[in-house]
Structure formats: C-alpha cells, structure tokens
Amino acid sequence: MPSIQACLFDLDGVIVDTAQFHYIAWREMAQDLGFDLTREENERLKGISRMESLEIVLSIGGVTLSDEEKLRRATAKNARYLELCMQMTPDDALPGVRHFLDELKRNGIPSGLGSASKNAKVILERIDMLHYFDTIVDGNRITKGKPDPQVFLMGAADLNVSPVHCAVFEDAVAGIESAKAAGMLAVGVGEASVLTEADMVIAGFENFGLPQLENI
Ligand code: BG6
Ligand code: MG
Asked: Which Pfam families does the record match to this protein (predicted)?
C-alpha cells in the first residue's frame, strides 16, 4: 500500500455522533405525516444528502408531496436538527478522534473533511474542531453526493495529494463506495459486517494511530 500523505474524514458518525439527531428530526417529520421511521430504516440515510434523504423517508411512508411542500419539510427538519445539535459541546467529539488528528498534525499529514452535510462548518465550530481541517468539502460544494467519488477527489485536489496517497475514514456504506471509486484507502468506522467493502474496519479511534494506518 502506498504511504498515506493525507487523511479525509466524513463528519457525521466519524468525528461526532450526529446521526441520532438526524434520526430524531426525520422521525418527528414522519410521525407528523402519519407513519413511523425505524432505526434500521434510518441507516439508509447515512451519508445521503438532505433532499435525497427526504425522498427515501417519504417513500418509506408511501407519502407524495408537492415540490414546495418537500422544501418546506426539509427546511423544518433542518431547523429541528440544528436545534438538537446545539446541545453538543466539545466533549461530544467521538473518543480518540482529536488525539488522532493531533498525531496527523504533528507528523505533517494534512486532514480534510468530506461530508454531504451543509451544516458541516456549524457542527465543527460547535465542537471546536474546525481548526483541525486544512480543507472542508461539504454539501455546499459538491454537485454529486456519495457514492460518487467527487467529495473525496475534491478534498485530495485541495490538499494537492494524489488520491492513491489518501486514506478516507467513513461510517456509511455509500461513503466507503465513494472512497473506493476515488481510488483511495477506505477505513470503515463501525461494524465490519456492514462496511464490507472497506480495506479495514475500526470500531473507533481509541487505540488507533498512524502505525495502525501504515500497517493496512
Ligand atoms: C451526512 C449524513 O453527513 O449529511 C446524512 O450522514 C445527512 O444523514 C447529510 O442527510 C446531509 O446533512 P445536512 O446537515 O446537510 O442536512
Ligand atoms: Mg457519516
């Protein structure tokens, strides 16, 4: 495996656990429309843009809405999501992730964020982690969502590192696909039984560092 010269991180589920807030906000919307959304169904929304997620949720409930109403619902869901996110503090960063980002900095390896979220900067500011990232590629910049490789290819280009020398950290199946399509090393954060296409799967960043990354 070529040596790693840059690391690209997904946000939700890798840096911080905001998936629970997305779930609460989508579930409340579903219930308001007369159906429930299970945790299992919520898995399908990980890594997927807001409007695409809305389409999936509506299809689960068999609900059809006008474009105007879809926009209104997505805006309301986002307002509720952000309200829930405001409960977070810097302590909400996932265990070990700050330590790993510090290790990368000490070793001169740049870090980038590659997220579908349009709220990425607000969330990173909230947990006081914006300064860790040399570039931010988020839902406001990309035109093609995961599993398309665009988000990570843009990150690599920003950092001026060839994709083959980049490692991606992702908790979503769509994100692992995106990393592999970009020709990068894909490190799954979560369960190996779910992230089957990843080059390696870690449960989290505790007990993980550069030596482990270089051994993949
Ligand atoms: C991803 C999440 O990071 O961002 C998805 O995994 C979410 O669940 C997507 O839909 C878009 O987020 P936002 O914050 O722009 O609604
Ligand atoms: Mg994620």
From this structure: Hydrolase
CA of 52 to the centre of ligand 2 (A): 15
The catalytic residue among 10, 91, 148, 158 is: 10
| Cα(35) to centroid(ligand 2), Å | 25
Q: Sheet holding 166-170: strands in order across?
A: 135-137, 111-114, 6-9, 166-170, 185-189, 200-202
Q: Tokens 């799954």 correspond to what residue?
A: 188
- Integer Rg of the chain from CA: 17
Ligand 1, from 48, 86, 122: best to mutate by most atoms within 8 Å of Cβ? 48
Ligand 2 center–CA 170 separation, angstroms = 6
